[in-house]
Every structure is written in structure tokens, then in C-alpha cells.
Design a protein that fits this description.
Blueprint (H helix, E strand, L loop, with lengths): L3 H7 L38 E6 L6 E6 L4 E5 L21 E2 L2 E2 L9 E5 L2 E11 L4 E6 L4 E7 L8 E5 L5 E5 L18 H4 L1 E9 L6 E10 L2 E7 L7 E7 L8 H4 L5 E8 H9 L4 E13 L4 E14 L7 E7 L2 E6 L5 E6 L4 E6 H9 L3 E5 L2 E4 L1 H4 E6 L5 E6 L4 E6 L4 E6 L5 E6 L4 E5 L12 E6 L15 E7 L6 E8 L6 E5 L29 E5 L2 E9 L2 E3 L2 E6 L3 E8 L8 E5 L7 E3 L4 E6 L5 E6 L12 E7 L8 E3 L11
Parallel strand pairs: 13-18, 36-39, 38-44
Antiparallel strand pairs: 1-2, 1-34, 2-3, 4-5, 6-7, 7-8, 8-9, 9-17, 10-11, 11-12, 12-13, 14-15, 15-16, 16-19, 17-18, 20-21, 21-22, 22-25, 23-24, 26-27, 27-28, 28-29, 30-31, 31-32, 32-33, 35-36, 36-37, 38-45, 39-42, 40-41, 40-43, 43-44
Bound molecules: copper (II) ion.
Length: about 650
């Protein structure tokens, strides 16, 4: 560790135009001494924390145990997942419906855990879809996606899903400003300044069941909203968004959106917005967005297209939005546990500005403004500024907090994490990362009560770190022990897709509530077979419905005849097990979608259109018992003109059947 300070200071002279990553020279690249023991969790022992990590361009969210770095689960959210049949089973397909139809992929950047009184409560984790703007809620009883809502008037949903301290709202700011859906979008791109707008979405969350509803949007000037965080404690009721491209450029943003010395942090008084909403100051506009809900009783998702949204105009309603100047091309926008300090991180900035919430309120009160930007007052920089962290590093991106008065900021360009004190703004420690760190995570680090034992850095590049795997290498997470004064690297581990952002929480807040199986008596799926005696096959025109059961180690029925070319076959498979961790799988030869993976007590449906005459084996794909390999059956498919009657059986031994 002794070289680190010297090395990191050395990197400060690297020209800022070098916005590619650099590997810190001579940096300590090993976990030294007995440090690795701190990450060791013995076989059979539980980890202390759950870590929810975005899968970036995989569209999924992964769950790791900390401190071991063991991958516990990949939760399918916005992308189809053959492992779980998500987006393949008829029951789950509606989850991926949008106003553009079925969209089976997206780009998930930020997990956000629900909070009560500003503390992580372990009930839900939210995730965003950047590309086709959506926000998902995952239920942490089942670790499954329970709900997805699409966002109208938006593009590149980056600055989401951030929540208020009682999960009153999940908030989403558009990254790409676009012409609103309710206006003609067929305009020249060059008319960006007049026709493009930025919308902030406020999604209301039902405190009882978590159900989401798009309560309102705030229309803002056409800039790029990047990240956001809610106020807390004294600043509860406010939201802070970083914005870049205040130049309102529409081409070559790498140059054209880096012209100004300062862009902005947008401070939004959402309590005031609520008042205006109640007073009827919003206007209803027509649009179309999907709202998809997974019902745990029917084990089936439904999708509804909604047609209306209420817009509050920040230009007309003068006291809901204020801009604070922030150097330069801000990315992260983080609020400390007290709610007083708002940290802006300019990707191209040489300092980290720390704003004071009290000073900001005073500046608003005294109208200490530098004019306005597109109708929104701009607070004077010095009037809102608490102070600047001088010469912190290169390319500050994101800041997390330990609740003991310290902040930890990631530096993409100089590949390091820098610890600094919030009160005196002095740098306390630096640790190299490998390499090009983006987000950081301290469990509870954006709440009022961080559990600051570990810090995890999520890195974009892993050259030299692991065995090569061809032209593409894994991205990674690096775990630091931050219980002492100095950060200590104790583990790094590869991650799935891009580990963009992550949040963590004590295992105890989640594991006690884990669902072990679904009660078969409560299964309300329309095609359930609640016992082997209920298994059957029915024809409805050219549809064949197989009500199938699965239990260790056979299906019922396991022989089906009388299916004809031109038929559409639906296998409704009910897993009759009432035991933890005994899923069954189902696959049939030639099916063009995927398998099913059916949890105990659940019913899931595979749609199959046979394309050939013949015998088609089907089998259980999830190793369920010693006789799992024997869990199989056959479907006979006959020509369309065939007279083979529809029949099915289980356990019928070989006699010479009629050939027909
Ligand atoms: Cu099985």
C-alpha cells in the first residue's frame, strides 16, 4: 500500500484530454498479507450482505454475497432468460411488453433498494431500463421481477430509479431529451433547442404492496439528465439531478457538450410539485406506455397500455425547479446521510464541488440568482457552494458515504477511490482500482444509515487481472475493507455484463422473509392441475391444452397422441412439489422458444407449434432427484389429415397400440 499515495498524485499530471482509462503505474496489484482472509466465508456459512449489482447491457440484475463475492442469483428483469424461462413462458411474456410491443432486451444500470425512514428495508429493489425507458420493481421475497412500468416522453432512462426516503416515489429523469410524445416528433433534429424537452417522471409506490403508478412528470428544458439522488432528513422533499449538455447540442456531444465551464445540478422541490398537482396545475396529455404486473396468485403477468399522463411545466410553476451551476459535465449527484451536503462530480472537473442544502434554501429565499436558464432560475454558484475538494484526482464520477462523516469518490481516469472528509474537504486516503472504476457501493451508502464495513468498486476493464478469455474480458468488482482509517483491498471478482451500479444490505433484512415455495392450494393459474388426477389434455379447435403435473420423478401425462400438424400446443405444467428448492424444468424437442422452469406450487405454460410429423421427446431440465434422468415423456405428432384420436396417459406400459 505504501506506493499508492505517490502513484495517485503522479497521475494528476496526466492531461485531462486522456479520457481513456489508465492503469496506475506501480500500483499494488495484489491482496497482501492476510487481507484475503477478511473476504473468506467458509463453505456452508452465510455471507453478511446481499449485493445487488446491475448487469448493464445484459438487462439483468445479479446478486452476490459479501464479503465472499459468490454469485448467488441472476434475476431476469428486462431481458429474456432461458435459464428461468423468463420471457419465454406464456405467463411471463407480458412482463416485457411495451408501447413498441415485446421488447426482450434492455440495459439495466442502477439498482435501488426500497427505504423506510431513510433506511434500507429489504422489501424491494428497483432497476432501470435505459434503452426503451422502463422501471422495474423486484420483490425480495421471491427475487423475481414483480412489476415493470414504461416511461413516456423519455429516452435513455439513465437517471433512475432513485427513491425518496420512504419510497414515496421512484424518480426517473430522461437522459436524451426528445420531443414529447404528445407533440409531432417529425421535426428537424437541428430544431433541438425549440422542440426537444427533458421530462422527469415521478412514480408513486404503494407503501403496502409496492405497486407503481406514474403520478406525474415535470417538463424541463432539453438537456441530458444523468443521475439523481433524493434529499434526506432536512432535504427530504427535494430531489437532485445532474445534467450535462446544457449547450443543447445535438451532434458530436464529446466536443459540443463540453463547451461550458459549468453545467447544472437541478434541484426539484417535489413536495411543492405535489401541491401543484393537488391544486390541478398539471395538464393531462395523451401518450401510450405499458404497465406490467406479475400476479403471485395466478403466477401470471398482465400488461396494460395506459394512455394519459399529467405534466407539470417547470417554466410556469416557477418554484419547483432550480439550477445550481456545477463544473464540468456532471455525472454523479450524491446526497450525504445528513441530507445537508450535495456532492456533484464533473467528469471533466478538477475539483469536487460540495453544495450546502441550507445555503441553497437561503439563496432561493434571497433570490441570489444568475438569471435563468430556459425559464428556470439559476442559483449563484458561490451562494449554494459549501466548498470544493481540491485536486482530488482525475474524472470524479460517484460518491458514497460511510455515515461517519467521510465520503468516497470514484475516479474513472486515474483509476482510484479517494476518501475525503465532508466537513473539512481534506483527502484522507487513496486506493487504486483495476481499472477504470465507475460506481461505488457501500451497503446503505445512499441512505441515512450506511453499514460501512465494505466498499465495492465496479470496474470497466480487467486487463491483466484474470486468465484471458479471448478479445473480451470480464468486468469486475473489487472489495475494500473500510472499517479502519485506510482502505484495504481484500478481494476482486468477475461480474456479469457491466456492473454499473450496485446496492447492498444486511442479509438479515432479507433472508428471513424468503419465500420457500408457493402453496399449491393458493395457485389461481387458469390452467393449474392441483394433483395428478387433474392432469388432462383438451382440444379447442386447433389448440391442444396439456394440463400437466410434475413431481419427482415423472410428468403426468407422459404419453400424448393425437396432436396434428397445424395444432398449437400449450403445455401448462404445474409443479406439485411443496418443498424448498425443488423446481422442475420442461422442454420439448424442436420448441423454438426455451424451457420452462417451474417453482414448487407454480404453473407455467410453454407454447409449442410442432413443425414435423413424428415422435417428440420431452423432459425435465432441472436436476430434481436421483431419477431426474427418467423424468421424461413423448408426444406423437401426426399429419393434419390424421384420424389419430387425442389421447394421453401416465404409466401405461407397452401394449401394441393402434396405429391408425
Ligand atoms: Cu424434474
Amino acid at each position: 500500500m505504501k506506493n499508492v499515495t505517490k502513484v495517485a498524485l503522479g497521475t494528476l499530471i496526466v492531461p485531462i484530454s486522456l479520457m481513456v482509462s489508465c492503469k496506475p503505474r506501480n500500483a499494488t496489484n495484489v491482496v497482501s498479507g492476510d487481507a484475503a482472509q477478511k473476504a473468506y466465508v467458509a463453505p456452508g456459512k452465510y455471507d453478511e450482505f446481499y449485493n445487488f449489482v446491475s448487469g448493464g447491457f445484459s438487462g439483468q440484475m445479479s446478486v452476490y454475497g459479501l464479503p465472499s463475492g459468490r454469485l448467488l442469483r441472476v434475476i431476469p428483469v428486462f431481458s429474456i432468460d432461458p435459464e428461468k424461462g423468463y420471457g419465454y413462458s406464456e405467463e411471463s411474456k407480458p412482463m416485457l411488453n411495451t408501447s413498441h410491443g415485446f421488447v426482450p432486451w434492455d440495459d439495466l444500470h442502477h439498482p435501488e433498494l426500497s427505504q423506510t425512514n431513510g433506511e434500507v428495508d429489504g422489501r424491494w429493489v428497483f432497476g432501470n431500463a435505459n434503452n426503451t425507458p422502463r422501471v422495474a420493481r423486484i420483490d425480495l421475497k421471491t427475487f423475481r421481477t414483480a412489476e415493470i412500468i414504461e416511461l413516456p416522453n423519455s429516452g435513455g432512462n439513465h437517471s433512475s430509479p432513485f427513491i425518496t426516503e420512504n419510497t414515496e416515489y421512484v424518480v426517473a429523469g430522461t437522459r436524451f431529451s426528445v420531443p414529447p410524445d404528445y407533440q409531432d416528433g417529425d421535426v428537424p433534429i437541428q430544431t433541438y433547442k425549440s422542440n426537444f424537452k427533458g421530462h422527469l417522471s415521478f412514480i408513486k409506490v404503494d407503501p403496502g404492496n409496492g405497486n407503481m403508478d406514474l403520478a406525474f412528470q415535470i417538463q424541463c428544458p432539453g438537456v441530458n439528465f444523468d443521475l439523481s439522488h433524493a434529499g434526506k432528513n432536512k432535504s427530504h422533499g427535494w430531489f437532485f439531478f445532474s445534467c450535462y449538455n446544457t449547450e443543447q447540442a445535438n451532434t458530436l456531444l464529446e466536443v459540443n457538450a463540453s463547451q461550458r465551464d459549468k453545467d447544472f445540478i437541478l434541484a426539484v422541490n417535489w413536495k411543492k410539485a405535489e401541491e401543484y398537482l393537488k391544486a390541478g396545475k398539471g395538464k393531462k396529455v395523451s401518450t401510450a406506455y405499458a404497465h406490467n404486473v406479475y400476479n403471485e396468485k395466478t403466477h401470471t403477468a398482465s400488461s396494460e397500455i395506459k394512455r394519459e399522463v399529467i405534466i407539470l411545466d417547470s417554466k410556469e410553476l416557477k418554484d419547483i425547479c432550480y439550477f445550481i451551476p456545477c463544473p464540468k459535465s456532471p455525472h454523479g449527484c450524491d446526497v450525504d446521510p445528513s441530507g445537508e451536503y450535495i456532492v456533484g462530480s464533473g467528469k471533466l472537473a478538477a475539483v469536487i464541488p460540495v453544495f450546502s442544502f441550507d445555503k441553497m434554501l437561503k439563496a432561493i429565499d434571497q433570490k441570489a440568482f444568475d438569471g435563468d436558464y430556459d425559464g428556470i432560475p439559476v442559483i449563484k454558484y458561490e451562494a449554494a457552494l459549501y466548498g470544493e475538494v481540491a485536486k482530488p484526482g482525475l474524472g470524479p464520477l460517484h460518491t458514497e458515504f460511510d455515515g461517519k462523516g467521510n465520503a468516497y469518490t470514484s475516479f474513472f481516469v486515474s483509476s482510484e477511490v479517494v476518501k475525503w472528509n465532508i466537513k473539512d474537504l481534506k483527502v484522507l486516503d487513496r486506493a487504486s482500482t483495476f481499472y477504470s472504476v465507475g460506481h461505488l457501493c457501500i451497503p446503505g451508502g445512499d441512505s441515512k444509515k450506511p453499514e460501512a464495513k465494505y466498499l465495492i468498486a465496479y470496474n470497466k476493464i480487467t486487463k491483466d487481472r484474470y486468465l484471458p478469455t479471448g478479445p473480451e474480458l470480464s468486468q469486475s468488482a473489487q472489495l475494500f475493507d473500510i472499517s479502519g482509517d485506510k482502505m484495504q483491498l481484500i478481494l476482486d471478482f468477475p461480474t456479469i455484463g457491466e456492473p454499473h451500479y450496485a446496492q447492498g444490505v444486511s442479509a438479515a433484512k432479507i433472508n428471513k422473509n424468503s419465500t420457500k415455495f408457493f402453496k399449491i392450494d393458493e395457485n389461481e393459474n387458469a390452467y393449474v392441475a392441483k394433483g395428478e388426477g387433474k392432469a388432462k389434455v383438451e382440444r379447442k379447435g386447433n389448440e391442444v391444452h396439456v394440463y400437466m403435473t410434475a413431481i419427482r420423478s415423472h410428468f403426468a401425462p407422459d404419453n400424448i397422441e393425437g396432436v396434428k400438424m397445424g395444432d398449437i400446443v400449450y403445455f401448462h405444467v404445474t409443479n406439485l412439489e411443496q418443498d424448498w428448492d425443488v423446481p422442475h424444468g420442461f422442454a420439448v424437442k424442436g420448441a423454438s422458444n426455451a424451457e420452462l422452469l417451474i417453482m414448487p406450487g407454480e404453473t407455467q405454460t410453454l407454447k409449442w407449434v410442432p413443425d414435423k410429423v413424428g415422435i417428440f421427446p420431452m423432459y425435465c431440465t432441472d436436476f430434481c432427484s436421483a431419477l431426474h434422468q427418467e423424468m421424461q415423456g413423448y408426444v406423437r405428432v401426426s399429419p393434419a389429415s390424421s384420424k389419430v384420436p387425442l389421447s394421453y396417459s401416465t404409466g401405461k406400459t407397452n401394449t401394441e397400440p393402434a396405429t391408425n
